[in-house]
Amino acid sequence: MKTSKDSLRPLASRKADEFFSDRASRADIEAARRLLRRDGGQPPEPADTLPSGISRQPAAEEPSRHTQGVPSASIANRSSSRS
């Protein structure tokens, strides 16, 4: 009896793939970019803190999954050329 690889995957995995494929097909990338670029908002309140024991580095120092393994100089050159 032959079975497809998909039929051997757990049902939850197949449902997750279907869910994310559906969401991706409905994405409005330009609307998301407008939302991220918008002015406004409020600065953090003094009480807006991370739980004790957790620290956060500035975003510029955090490697993204797209730049892991890329030398720092390459990243700096790439971001300065976009300006």
Number of strands: 0
Query: Mean of the pLDDT scores?
Result: 75
Shape: flat
Q: What's the gyration radius in Å?
A: 21 Å
**Uncertain residue segments:** none
Strand percentage: under 5%
The succession of helices and strands, N to C, reads HHHH
Structural class, by secondary structure, is: mainly alpha
Largest sheet: none
Contiguous helical run count: 4
Helix content: 40-55%
Distance between the termini: 59 Å
Structure description:
This protein is 47% helix and 0% strand. By secondary structure, it is mostly helical. The radius of gyration is 21 Å and the shape is flat. 0% of the residues are buried.
Key words describing this protein structure:
mainly alpha, 0% strand
What is the gist of this entry?
With 83 residues, the chain is mainly α. Helices cover 47% and strands 0% of the residues.
Please render the helix and strand layout as text.
Elements: H1 5-8, H2 11-25, H3 29-37, H4 72-82
